[in-house]
Amino acid sequence: MRALEARLPRFDPDGRFDFSQDAGTLTLSNGLGNITAHARFVPVGTWSSETGSWLWGWANESIDRALVAPLQKLRDYGAQTRIELLTSERVACSAEEAQEIYAVAVHLLQAQGWYRSQMTPTSVIHTALFDIRLAPAVKAPVS
Question: d(Cα 49, Cα 65) in Å, to the nearest integer?
Answer without folding.
Answer: 25
